[in-house]
Every structure is written in structure tokens, then in C-alpha cells.
Amino acid sequence: MEFVFQIAILIMSVVIHEVSHGYAASYLGDETARWQGRLTLNPLKHLDPVGSFVVPVIAYLTGGFIFGWAKPVPYNPYNLRPGRWSEAIVAAAGPISNLSIALIFGFILRSGVTLGWASQSFVTITAIVVFINIVLAIFNLVPIAPLDGSKLLYALFPENTLKFRQFFERYGLMLVLFFIFFLWSYLFPVIAFVFRLITGIAF
Prior knowledge:
69% of the residues lie in helices and 0% in strands. By secondary structure, the protein is an all-alpha fold. The protein has one domain. Helix 1 (2-27) packs across helix 3, helix 1 (2-27) crosses helix 5 (120-140) and helix 5 (120-140) crosses helix 8. It is found in: Cell membrane. One of its GO terms (cellular component) is plasma membrane. Its main location: membrane.
């Protein structure tokens, strides 16, 4: 049952993540996501067979945690308002949405525990919401394309990005999968620290 809850929370969290990209692009002048019907919280419009099903199951069976992604919301960078940070703003919208969810549910969790009205099942489910959204926020900030962190890297160092982009466009997905299955442990202490900071609960 906990696995089902985790999958449901993951799906809605990645959907909010992707829709946030679309709304940020729309705010900056690009309506590609709206035209393709992707500015919706309907999960069926966003689910990715590998990222939303295969990877979460493998991650749960091998590492005991849930992780995955949805289909990226499309946007046309040439339609964005001119500016060095336009793509970075669109990219940052996703992790910011997940961090916002983590903070909101972390506050609810802290309040429930402090005031004594939170049941154990409520604490468990709320903690899962916080944890999954922290994972999504931090992981997506890793500077490997197509993750959001790569767009931030391009904005910080625009003069050095052409070779980066060419390399990541060719090998990006392979590097992401390599990172998930072999370098994930390096992110976990950061995730645990942020989780404890937000909830006051040691993970």
C-alpha cells in the first residue's frame, strides 16, 4: 500500500514540476505547452513509460526509494522574451515548484507533530510527500542535460556552453541513468539534511 501511495505522490509531483515549466515559459512569451495541451494537471498528458513506471519500480526494488520523471513539457526558447536568464527561469520553475510543495507539507507535518493532532499514518504520508519533492528538486538541479541544472549552468557560463550542449544532447540520457544507478549515494546526504531541516525529523 505504501508503494502505491509513493507512486501516486511521485506522479502528481512530477506533473506539477512539468506544468510549472510550461507556465513559466508561457509567462515569458512561449505558448507551445498550452497549444499542445500540456498546461494541465491530468497525469495522462504527462506520463512517460520509462520515467513514470519502469524507473520507479526498479528504484524501489533495488534501492527502496521511489524516483522517476514525466515527459518534458515542450517550449521553444526562441519564443521566450530575450534575455540571458530566460531558459534558466523556465528550468528553475520545476525544482522551485517541488521545493514549495516540500515546504508546505513540511510546515503541515511540523504543525501536526507539535500540536499533537497528527496520526502516524498522516505523518508517514506527509513525510513521503516532502521526501519525494526534495528528491525531485535536488536531482533536477544536477547540471546534466536534460536535467534543469544544465540550463542554469548554460546561463551562468554562456560562452562555454556550446560544447557542453553538443555533448549532453548526444549522451545526456545515458549520463542521467548512470548518475541514478551509480552516483545516487552522493546526493542522499544532501537530501537527508534538507529533509531534516524542513520537517525536523531525522531520515
